[in-house]
Design goal:
The chain is 20% helix and 13% strand. The strands form three sheets. Strands 7-6-5-8 form a four-stranded mixed beta sheet, with helices on one face. A three-stranded antiparallel beta sheet has the order 1-2-9, covered by helices on one side.
């Protein structure tokens, strides 16, 4: 997925990656048909150098650097990473089936690290912005040259009125009698939407200090981490933390029915995208620490918001690690590769969100992988940070 306007071009493909139709098609995409990861020179990793320069200029706050409040120390160890062949709940639901990029299963060895027990909240991000004057990606006009650099050759430029600051907001579409929905039916580009105004300029985060901050791009998350003396987790670290010490369990709390899962995480119940039953008590975001922690003491490692990792996304990365015996503290591939968007560069996001549901996308499974362009922030995307021991 890509920067705001560009996102519409790619979203039809990127977000369909967890839809029933595409999931069925993925069964034909084998490890043999995917290129090896960037160790063999394949992949793509476009970086917005101007955004990266802003991140690099952020000064680490000395008080934040020594502040371990709200962090959990993990000793490290080994865990079994990867998808489960089938689920015990409703195996007929395509959203619950593992995807090819979750295999092969592999034993990963992880060094100890500190990790935030919750997703970064509005209150925490506000302190960062007040301290640094940082302006998020969604609050900036969209540079035309950045868009054109990420679109296929010959694509006409977007109109100037599409280059204003804003972000994509979820809108529940009307019922379609034919039952045919696509991502453009529920995502709407709203000028003025940002972390301060999650649903648009008329909305506010007043009274929502303990909600996870959203509309955060990968660059925004990197900037906050730099200021706090932290970093983003690797994908391997993230899954180790999410599993909470459990082995071969589907969720961060273990295995359960969908009905039991409603008590464990914030996700969509009902027919997506037109009927949200709200059985978990929330239509959209929930405050952090609303649901029980996992075995390591972390909250919302499933549902609520997607969380940025440091890694580039590569569809065949797990196979590459296994074949090259690189299973100790893997840092991610050198470049991105998605067989459905081979010309795009994407970073890994993990954990699912309030929009994940049992028939369309079970992104809150512990093994589920998803990806997004580093320039993109969405209403269901946030982050948490880690720190080396």
């Amino acid at each position: 997925m890509l920067n705001k306007f560009v996102l519409f071009f790619f979203m039809m493909f990127a977000l369909f990656a967890c839809s029933p139709d595409v999931d069925s098609a993925k069964s034909s995409v084998t490890q043999e048909t995917l290129p090896m990861c960037s160790m063999s020179g394949q992949g793509f990793n476009y970086i917005n150098n101007e955004a990266l320069k802003v991140v690099e200029k952020i000064a680490t706050d000395p008080l934040q650097k020594e502040n371990f409040t709200g962090m959990i120390k993990l000793a490290g160890g080994s865990y079994q990473r990867g998808g489960n062949e089938r689920t015990p709940m409703k195996p007929e639901l395509p959203g619950y089936q593992p995807r090819q990029d979750e295999f092969p299963n592999q034993t990963i060895n992880i060094k100890g690290f500190w990790i935030d027990e919750t997703e970064v909240t509005n209150a925490q991000f506000a302190v960062f912005v007040e301290s640094t004057g940082y302006v998020t990606t969604a609050e900036q006009p969209i540079p035309l040259e950045e868009i054109m650099a990420q679109l296929p050759p010959g694509t006409p430029p977007p109109p100037k009125e599409a280059l204003v600051p804003g972000a994509l907001v979820f809108r529940q579409p009307p019922v379609n009698p034919a039952g045919n929905y696509s991502v453009q039916d529920w995502w709407e580009m709203i000028p003025g939407a940002s972390w301060r105004h999650p649903q648009g300029p008329e909305s506010s985060i007043v009274g929502k200090d303990d909600f996870p901050v959203v509309h955060i791009s990968w660059y925004d998350a990197m900037a906050y981490a730099k200021w706090a003396g932290k970093r983003l987790p690797t994908e391997a670290e993230w899954e180790y933390a999410a599993r909470g010490g459990l082995t071969q369990n589907i969720f961060s709390w273990g295995n359960s029915t969908i009905e039991e899962a409603e008590k464990q995480a914030n996700f969509w119940q009902g027919e997506f995208p037109v009927e949200n039953l709200g059985n978990d008590g929330f239509e959209k975001l929930s405050p952090v620490k609303t649901f029980p922690p996992n075995g390591f003491g972390m909250y919302d490692m499933a549902g609520n918001v997607w969380e940025w990792c440091s890694d580039w996304y590569h569809a065949n990365y797990f196979a590459c690690l296994t074949e090259n015996n690189l299973l100790d503290n893997p840092l991610g591939p050198e470049a991105s590769y998605d067989p459905y968007l081979p010309g795009s560069s994407q970073k890994v996001v993990r954990g699912g969100s309030f929009l994940c549901n049992d028939s369309y996308c079970s992104g809150y499974r512990a093994a589920a992988r998803m990806k997004s362009s580093p320039d993109t922030g969405l209403e269901h995307t946030g982050f948490r940070c880690v720190r080396d021991l």
